[in-house]
Amino acid sequence: MRLIVSAASASLLVLAAACGANGEARQDAPAGAPLETRPANGVGQEPAFAGQTRAPGVRTEQALAHTVVASGLEHPWGLALLPDGNWLVTEKPGRMRIVTAQGRVGPPIQGLPPVDARGQGGFWT
After folding, report:
1. CB within 8 A of 106, min separation 6: which ones?
2. 102 and 63 in one domain?
3. Are 10 and 47 part of one and the same domain?
4. What pLDDT score does 31 carry?
5. Residues 53-63 pLDDT 10s
6. Among 41, 68, 95, which residue terminates a domain?
7. For the segment 12-27, what is each residue's pLDDT rounded down to a tens digit?
């Protein structure tokens, strides 16, 4: 069970890090302040209602740790815990694999539909 919690925590940490990997997030902002303060990038983009702001930043004093559970995956894109403790992991280019609780990465699962992996497109579980 501890390995599953560690793997889930690591997965969330990797996804969160990927979302802010371009260095745009402010590290000096107080808790609850918007993470992004630049003007909207859409031409003519306006708030939907008065006072609308971007999502607030979240700060915690809780120490986080991560453990690499598996390696060799190309842009892991989504994951789902299977009843037997293994993970179903998708890779953005369109592969799906089973990763064991011990971290062994299985071969790509055959027979999947084609995937359009441009931009934010990818293969979700």
Report:
1. 97, 98, 99, 100
2. no
3. yes
4. 60
5. 666 667 778 88
6. 68
7. 554 444 444 444 444 5
* Strand arrangement, sheet containing 76-81: 76-81, 87-91, 95-99
Domain count, the chain: 2
Tell me the C-alpha distance between 13 and 64, whole Å.
9
Instruction: Please list the alpha-helical segments (H only) found in the chain.
Output: 2-19
Whether 89 and 43 map to the same domain: the answer is: no
**The tokens of 91 are what?**
């890779």
pLDDT at res. 96:
93
Q: Where a domain ends, among 19, 53, 68?
A: 68
Read off φ and ψ for residue 73, nearest 5 degrees: -90, 145
**What is d(CA 107, CA 99) in angstroms, rounded to the nearest whole number?**
9
Cβ proximity of 121 and 111 under 8 Å:
no
Shared-domain flag, residues 61 and 74: no
- Domain limits at 117? 70-125
Same domain as 59, residue 29: yes
Question: What is d(CA 68, CA 2) in angstroms, rounded to the nearest whole number?
Answer: 14
pTM, to two decimals: 0.50
